[in-house]
Amino acid sequence: MKTARALSIMVCFFLAGSVFGQCGWPSFIYDITFEDSLTSFVHINNLSDTDDVWQIGLPQKVAFNAAYSGTHVIVTDTTDSYPPNDTSEFIVYHLAMDGWGTPAHVVLGGNYWVDSDSVSDFGKIEVSFRPDSGWLDLIDPQWSVGPYWVDGIYPTLSGRSMGWKYFLLNHAGLRDTLIALAGITLQFCDTVYYRFTFISDSIDTHRDGLMFDDLHFEDWSQGIQEYVSSNFHSSASPDPTDGLITLTYETANIGALKLVICDPMGRPVISIAHVPYHRDELDVSGLAAGIYLYELVSDDGAHRSIGRFVKR
Fold first, then answer.
1. 87 Ramachandran zone, left/alpha/beta (phi>0; psi -120 to 50)
2. What is the pLDDT, as a whole number, of residue 30?
3. Residue 86 C-alpha from the chain's centroid
4. Which uninterrupted H or E stretch holds 114?
5. Which of 5, 23, 86, 93 could, after both became Cys, cross-link 189 (CB 3.0–4.6 A)?
6. Which residues touch 19 (CB under 8 Å, ≥6 apart)?
């Protein structure tokens, strides 16, 4: 029952993520897959900058021809190479929860694929409490001590990654630095801004640029760490689904996994003792419509990944 109650609480957090404007929950854990309504938290700066090349859609380029999960990504143009002398950005809006207030656990993760000609064409990931007061570059080496890049995976948003790469950053330790920069104390439900930028030089080399998929956010206090610690990545697609879902997960050196899927009341509806490594396809057509939480956990309980999907 302890596990069921914990999963039920976490499903509520996912529900909170799906009604982002209602600020009544202490924590958020959610993914932006660019397939569903959570995309509304993403703002592409094409109102003030009509040349902004970021687009959400199906990638149809030379190297960029498939999403990490589902069909849609956010990419520096879905069909054309990125132009020279360009700076394009998109911003994700996040409401501050207990992770920023304690601080305890504030996570940004996701998947990226970069295809640029050199380090002169590169991407940035920044965070701010007040954009007019400045931004902190999360992948600047000066923050390598404060923020914690899980498994030491430091994203390289230039050159050629030759496929999808994963990053995960716990940056709760930057709270005081951001407060000093903004000149304000962050309050519960204040907006935190994440800016993703791609910058090109004057040489047009006809490369694909940069794309992201399955951006992952966590914001929670230390008190629930026992239940929500995710130390390897997983995703479910398509999301939402009518019947079949594919779970994809990175399980290097973890060993056997078991899977539990719970309904919004925290009741297990699917349980599998041993799931295949890296990918598993499940039939969930018999489930009622709603939001479901899944948990993948190693036999020894030391490794866990948690996610959600919507059944239509």
1. beta
2. 81
3. 25
4. strand 105-115
5. 23
6. none
pLDDT at 231: 66
End-to-end distance of the chain based on CA atoms, in angstroms?
A: 27
Helix (H) or strand (E) holding 138: none
Domains of the chain: 2-227 (2.60.120.200), 234-311 (2.60.40.1930)
Residue 266 and residue 304 in contact, taking contact as beta carbons nearer than 8 Å = no
Identify whether the C-beta of residue 17 lies closer than 8 Å to the C-beta of residue 28: yes
Query: How many angstroms separate the CA atoms of 220 and 224, rounded?
Result: 7
Asked if residues 189 and 95 have their Cβ atoms less than 8 Å apart, the reply is yes
Q: Count CB-CB contacts under 10 A for residue 203.
A: 11
Map tokens 């304000």 to a residue.
184
Q: Of the segments 38-52, 85-99, 142-156, 209-223, which one has the largest average pLDDT value?
A: 85-99
DSSP SS3 for 177: helix
Residue for token digits 């930028």?
197
User: Could you tell me the two tokens for 160?
Assistant: 């050629």
Give residue 266's pLDDT: 59
Pull the structure tokens for residue 296: 């993948």
CB-based burial label for 24 (10 Å; 0-12, 13-18, 19+): exposed
293 with 228: CB under 8 angstroms? Answer: no
pTM of the model: 0.68
- Find the helix or strand (DSSP H, E) in which 160 lies: none
Beta carbons within 10 angstroms of residue 248's beta carbon: 15
φ and ψ at residue 151, rounded to 5 degrees:
60, 15
